[in-house]
Write a structure and sequence with these properties.
globular; 8-stranded mixed beta sheet; 2 domains; Urease, subunit C, domain 1; about 20% strand; TIM Barrel; alpha/beta; 8-stranded parallel beta sheet
């Protein structure tokens, strides 16, 4: 057995309210010990047990590693021109997805895996220790399957998103595409995926099409996730809750009935402020959701069109500044909330029995993540107690 200790932690955000102050369960002058990558002890630094290896945190803040539960890192190509046009007055309609589809289909397997690895490493340098990765830019049986194979090179949290949009070759016969997704495509992709997702939106898939796809995926043993209520106040959130989805994502346009449905369910609302930032859209009502008792997560939505960022610190700053969460709530949503979105009980919290995924800040408090936006505060990252390549 190998033990590792982190001592002289100025502020430890455990994300477990039972361990300390407030929503983040904050402890001061604290320490952590892990054995074989799993936390075995949390308490005062002065009482820290001896360990084989020790890291003196010199009064810095320590947090759980970020859990980014909504990413699209498997793609090829670039949509900077689309972003430029949007910033000069062209509204976002999600049609640019087809541009990425063309580039992704033309890319090699190695290119797709290389890009996913690049983005996963970029996310890790900023404190992300667990990420979810979707397909959705292939939209053929072969290209969706190989996208998921590429996704599995960077994470076990892989999501089949063959129902991202209807590809151009099926534009006049969307129901035929739904049949393909539910049949041959799902058969090929399910062995490589843990989750299935559907984009329920005007211009994508309607409630009945989404239900058929999600039920077929559930029959294959996949967990359910949903892109819902991003551009319009539709039926996606309530369908996700009805089907017991682990998460409904975006949630930008919600009515009272949507919030009530979420509050009475085990479905997490995973919010993606980067998409609203990049598309100049209204932000999701994070504080209303939190106050209603909904479990809230925040994620990067890293994708080449509407949120080309891997920065969870930026998501925290936006959630505080634009969505009304407190710094503690935003950090909880980026850690324990993300873990809940993935239905994981081994990550997102720094407590005995959890995986030793933690990050150190060049700052005395978690508040600095929102207080000093854009500053590379994450200095050290550990996953299962193993130190990752330097963040700075």
């Amino acid at each position: 057995m190998t033990s590792v200790a982190w001592t002289n932690i100025g502020e430890l955000s455990t994300a477990d309210p039972s361990l300390g102050e407030g929503a983040l369960g904050v402890l001061r002058d604290a320490a952590i010990v892990a054995v074989d990558g799993v936390i075995s002890w949390v308490g005062p630094s002065s009482s820290c047990p001896a360990a084989d290896e020790a890291h003196d945190m010199a009064g810095r803040a320590v947090l759980p590693g970020f859990v980014d539960a909504h990413m699209h890192p498997v793609f090829a190509g670039d949509r900077a021109a689309e972003f430029d046009a949007r910033m000069t007055g062209t509204p976002y309609t999600a049609g640019g997805i087809r541009t990425t589809v063309a580039a992704t289909r033309a890319a090699s397997d190695a290119d797709l895996a290389r890009n996913a690895a690049r983005l996963a490493a970029e996310a890790a340098r900023q404190g992300t220790t667990t990420l979810e990765a979707k397909s959705g830019y292939g939209l053929t049986v072969r290209d969706e399957q190989r996208s998921l194979v590429a996704a599995r090179t960077v994470t076990d949290e892989t999501t089949f998103l063959g129902a991202h949009v209807v590809p151009v070759e099926y534009a006049d016969r969307p129901d035929d595409y739904v049949e393909l997704v539910c049949g041959e495509m799902l058969d090929a992709c399910a062995p490589h995926a843990k989750w299935a997702d559907v984009f329920i939106e005007r211009g994508a898939f309607d409630r009945d099409q989404a239900r058929a796809i999600l039920e077929a995926a559930r029959a294959k043993g996949l967990g359910l996730r949903v892109h819902a209520n991003q551009l319009t106040q539709g039926e996606g959130v309530r369908l996700g809750v009805e089907l017991g989805a682990a998460s409904v994502d975006h949630c930008t346009n919600l009515g009272d009935e949507d919030i009530e449905a979420l509050a009475g369910s085990g479905t997490v609302a995973t919010l993606v402020p980067g998409a609203e930032f990049s598309t100049r859209s209204a932000y999701a009502p994070a504080r209303r959701l939190w106050d209603a008792g909904v479990t809230v997560a925040i994620a990067s939505d890293c994708n080449p069109g509407s949120s080309y960022t891997t920065s969870m610190p930026l998501m925290i700053a936006l959630a505080v500044r634009e969505m009304g969460l407190s710094p503690a709530q935003a950090v909880w949503a980026a850690t324990a909330g993300g873990a809940a979105s993935l239905r994981r009980d081994d990550i997102g919290v720094l407590a005995p029995g959890r995986r030793a995924d933690l990050i150190a800040l060049d700052a005395p408090s978690h508040v600095h993540l929102a207080y000093r936006p854009g500053v590379p505060l994450v200095t050290d990252v550990w996953r299962s107690a193993d130190r990752l390549p330097s963040a700075v």
